[in-house]
Amino acid sequence: MLQVLANQEVFAVEKGEGPPRLFVHCSLARHESLIPLARALPAARNIYFDMPGHGRSAPWHGHDYQSDVVDIAVQLLDGPAHLIGHSFGATVALRLAAERPDIVSRLTLIEPVMFAAATDPDAIATHRAAFAPFVKAWTAGDRETAAKLFVGMWGTGPAWDDLPAKMRATLAEQIYLIPAASAAIEDDAHRVLDKLDRVTCPVDLIEGSTSQPIMSAILDGLAGALPQAQRSVIEGAGHMVPITHVAQVASVLQHC
Q1: What ranges in 2-142 are assigned the alpha helix state H?
Q2: Nearest to 73 by CA among 10, 130, 125, 161
Q3: Left (φ > 0), alpha (ψ -120 to 50) or beta: where does 92 sit?
């Protein structure tokens, strides 16, 4: 249902009964992308929402995108919950756990794009070089090319031209949300990395073996700061691992 959370009109839904789990999807997706993973896990009260500008939520009209999404997540919780975030959604979950550890019982970060956590100079240089064409297209105002480049790097695999025209138009419309979140994940504008000692719950760090090289560097940084974390690599998977390799990710979470 639509409701106003953090001054945004947000679509949120709960399904099932049991211990609460909150799912936070990746950029340019919607909450349904994580429902198959939820169904593959033990029964729980699963809470989902479409981030502003995604799915059935209204366009975003705030001042700090990650802060708004974190505030929305907080307002959807009524007590400690297992947070499961993918990609940008994982950076939201990480920040929430660092700032509000009282409402996080377990933290699962799947391919978290917290680029500021990486310290490997080679991985960082490779990431910046690969992302430079996106920055150039966005700066030039070419939304379609920016969306095409972003999906090519971080999407599920289908070529841009093979996507339905309506989907391409939607992705081009949403692409402004990527630079809107950049300061939070590239520069750690909210100093999340300085607060990781407050994360005392169990942490799952999950990556795909064929993802961008920067991902392993990010998880190296997070694992070093979160000694209670358990790290898993899903063989043959890329960045969209919770969508393309549901059973393998569910197996990791069931056995942690």
Answers
A1: 35-40, 65-76, 88-99, 121-139
A2: 10
A3: alpha
Question: Cβ contacts of residue 11 below 8 Å, gap of 6+?
Answer: 1, 2, 31, 49, 50, 55, 56, 57
Edge-to-edge strand list for the sheet holding 104-110: 2-5, 8-15, 45-49, 20-24, 81-86, 104-110, 203-208, 229-234
Q: Kindly give the residue spans of alpha helices, DSSP state H, lying in the chain.
A: 35-40, 65-76, 88-99, 121-139, 143-154, 165-174, 177-180, 182-186, 213-225, 241-244, 246-254
Q: Which residue has the tokens 């994940």?
A: 185
Q: What are phi and psi of 3, to 5 degrees?
A: -150, 160
Residue position matching structure tokens 């509000």: 100
pTM above 0.90, yes or no: yes
Per-residue pLDDT 10s for the chain (256 aa) are 899 999 999 999 999 999 999 999 999 999 999 999 999 999 999 999 999 999 999 999 999 999 999 999 999 999 999 999 999 999 999 999 999 999 999 999 999 999 999 999 999 999 999 999 999 999 999 999 999 999 999 987 778 999 999 999 999 999 999 999 999 999 999 999 999 999 999 999 999 999 999 999 999 999 999 978 999 999 999 999 999 999 999 999 986 5
DSSP states of 70-103 as a string? Answer: HHHHHHH-SS-EEEEEETHHHHHHHHHHHH-GGG
